[in-house]
Every structure is written in structure tokens, then in C-alpha cells.
Amino acid sequence: MFSIMKKIINSNEAPPPIGPYSHSVMAEGKLLFVSGQIPFDKNGNLVGNEIISQTHQSIKNIKAIVEEAGGELSNVVKTTVLLNDMANFTKMNEVYEQYFGESKPARAAYQVARLPKDVLVEIEAIACL
What we know:
Layout: E1 6-9, E2 24-27, E3 31-37, H1 51-68, E4 76-83, H2 89-100, E5 106-111, E6 121-128
Parallel strand pairs: 4-5
Antiparallel strand pairs: 1-2, 2-3, 3-6, 4-6
Helix pairs in contact: 1-2
């Protein structure tokens, strides 16, 4: 039977999960799988009502979780961006580039019918530490 070593990592600097999941799971001590982050602050309050502020907060939450695991945003190798409307894609990209700059992880972006709490964006990430 194959067994992997995994560790649950949560951050006090990101909002508490709104369901039965962890902020992230570290697998084999090097791969960090970060759950989708929506634009709530660490107190659980929605940040902003437009795509720019919501993208900033979603990435800040990812940053806090990756740092809690001992890494930084440059360790992120893959993201998935979920948008409620692809019309927000360009503005989301402008914010996204401010955080990932030259490290540019692989990425997929999708428009979805609805996101939790009716937010405009949700971003998940995989980091290699």
C-alpha cells in the first residue's frame, strides 16, 4: 500500500475556511496544495465589491498560507483562477502580475456560473517548497 506524508497548514492571516477543508495540505514535505481563496480578510469580511480589490485579497490570502508553510509567492508553480465573468479577466491579470511578476506560474482561468458567497474571483495554488 502506498502512503504519502501529508501535513495540514492553516494561517491566522487568511480567513477561516467556510467549509470542511484546510487552507492547504503539504505533501511529502515539498508540494503545497492551497485551497481556493476568496476575497475575505482574516476576520472573514469581504474585501471590496470589484475585481481589483477582490483579486488583491485572494492573492494576499494565498501569500499568507504559502508563507505559513515556509515559502513565498515565487514558490507557486500552478494556479487556477475562477472568475464570475471573463469581462474581469484583464483587470484580474493586471493585479495578478503585480504579485507573480517574473515567477509566472502555470495557470488556467475559467468563467464559472457562481462562486462561494457570490464573490467575483477565487484562486487556488500549488507551490513547491
